[in-house]
Amino acid sequence: MQKVPGIDIIQGGRAGGSLAQRTSMGIGGMPEVEVRVFDLAKIDALPKILEDTALPVHILGAGTNILARDGAPQICLLTFETGLRPEVVGREGEYTLMRCGADMRLAVLLAKAADCGLAGLSGLAGIPGSVGGALAMNAGSYGTSIGDHVRSMRVFSPLLGLADLPRERLEFSYRRAGIKGHEGWYLILDVTLALKTGRTEEIREHLRACMEEKKARQPLGTRSAGCVFKNPAPDVPAGRLLDEAGLKLEREGGMMFSDIHANFMLNTGNGLFRDALTLIERARARVLAASGWNLDLEVKLWT
Ligand code: EPU
């Protein structure tokens, strides 16, 4: 494989460690290849490098919504650094524009928005991932999804190259995001959000309240990937269906559904990928039998 300055190609994944070390679920082996872009000026070389690996490409952010297979996953892991901390970059009518690198933690963005007196994001408090991961999944909670606030996104794809896409080119729906009419992979490099002005103290108070609410209802701080399944309809929470089907505390090997919130699957210590899959299939079958709903995964499976 051709060497390009600004892009590291690591065989055997040793540099960053296994996916068990790099995901909140704590499961997953050493990827076959890792490609790390640390100079975005060289990013045009990326499609060829990825093509040469002849492996499926998976983009890793903070690893908080991923269930990866053990052993040696035959994947090419793609990571990158922008170094772009959140900052105010302009104004548009009643909105202030805040730009942030996709590799930043969502919590860093929320704290900065509060410091700058920018409101609208506090419902996202307690979502653990990166800004890029939150955008890719259109993460949401307490009535707010990150996509609601996007003004534009800078992306890279083999088709578009580096492109700053206005909101009109993007589409967001429940736990989904995409570029209209675009096929194939793309990297989200940074985002510009349009936020209304508020009072810092009130925003911080709202952040605290959402966090407290979450702590009371969700097993935060455990080894999990958040909710395993999507809610099958806006007024039909998967957590309730799983709870009613008796899945709380259901176990397979080291994996278990939480007794606090039935849509959280926990790795209690030595959980394996196959334990997780067995538990997922059992839960699906029981919910289908009990309620007639077919649950779709919210976590990303890397097989
Ligand atoms: N419920 C139960 N039993 C349970 C869990 C929930 O009966 O074990 C009931 C609750 O009592 C409540 C309803 O189900 O009446 C909804 O529960 P909750 O308020 O916890 O919200 P959710 O729909 O389960 C969604 C998101 C969460 C997000 C919360 C808060 C999905 C799949 N989940 O959960 O996001 O934090 O709303 O807004 O959309 C995630 O995506 O990983 C995630 C955790």
Strand-helix topology:
Blueprint: E1 7-11, H1 19-22, E2 33-37, H2 46-53, E3 57-59, E4 66-68, E5 76-80, E6 87-92, E7 95-101, H3 106-115, E8 118-119, H4 131-136, E9 140-141, E10 144-145, E11 150-157, E12 161-166, E13 170-173, E14 176-179, E15 187-197, H5 200-217, H6 238-244, E16 251-252, E17 255-257, E18 265-267, H7 273-291, E19 300-302
Helix pairs in contact: 3-5
Task: Describe what you observe in this structure.
With 303 residues, the chain is an alpha+beta fold. 24% of the residues lie in helices and 28% in strands. It has 7 helices and 19 strands. The chain has helices spanning 19-22, 46-53, 106-115, 131-136, 200-217, 238-244, 273-291, and strands spanning 7-11, 33-37, 57-59, 66-68, 76-80, 87-92, 95-101, 118-119, 140-141, 144-145, 150-157, 161-166, 170-173, 176-179, 187-197, 251-252, 255-257, 265-267, 300-302. The strands form 6 sheets. Strands 6, 7, 8, 11, 12 and 15 form a 6-stranded antiparallel sheet that branches. A 4-stranded mixed sheet has the order 1-2-5-3, with helices on one face. A hairpin with a 2-residue loop joins strand 6 (87-92) and strand 7. Helix 3 runs antiparallel to helix 5 (200-217). The two termini are 24 Å apart. The model has no long low-confidence stretch (mean pLDDT 95). The structure holds uridine-diphosphate-2(N-acetylglucosaminyl) butyric acid (EPU).
